Structure prediction request, 232 residues.
Amino acid sequence: MTYLTRDPLSIDQLLAQVSSRACGGTCVFLGTVRDGAEEDGVTAIEYSAYEEMVEAEFGQLVAHAAERWPDARIAVRHRLGTIPTGEASIGIAAAAPHRAEAFDACRFVIEEVKRRIPVWKKELRLDGTEVWVDPSGRPTSKPSHV
Amino acid sequence: MGAMSGTVRVRFFARYAELVGRTEVQVSVELPATVSDVVRRVRAQLPGAGAIPERPLAAVNLKQSKLDARVEDGDEVAFLPPIAGG
Prediction:
């Protein structure tokens, strides 16, 4: 099982992984590269990772989710490399017999990703500048925590 | 008798890799050693590494570890900038 890819994410593939006749609710979450009011002309984000650790951490995370929601089926994939604005960087699908478990499991996975999966992003801007993004979502143009 | 020393593979990612201009380095530390000892050694001996925090997020052999965690010969120690995935 690999949780990382450098190709565009396929929702169909995620759905196929969790599809089951026993599941009546499926929740899909996509995280996409944004150029909103808080950003400053973001054209793309370059994602990098400690890949071996990401694979290990995702394995544990999904196992942990399976303990909490034993009837849920979960698929997750994180994309790396340069991802243009509007395209997805992470896709999560959670299917369960009932919708509450599907929503809860899906939410759990994305929150844990934000907390513990060693992935980093650098915003690429229209003006040619490149800025590392800090965990609160705000960019940091110089070393902030030294 | 001299103290025993060990070699650890230190890996850098994202902004830290840019600061030191490389993605990994082998460092020698006197055993017993902790993650903090490795951080101190790297910050002192590697150009650019002084800008890495004194107390960075760290992982030993793919698991997030505290700075007082023990490091053994052959271990892989990673310095992790604040995580920003998703």
Remarks:
- Helices of chain B lie at 14-20, 35-45.
- The two ends of chain B are 51 Å apart (CA to CA).
- Chain B touches chain A at residues 11, 13-15, 19, 51-53, 59, 62-64, 78, 80-86 (CB under 8 Å).
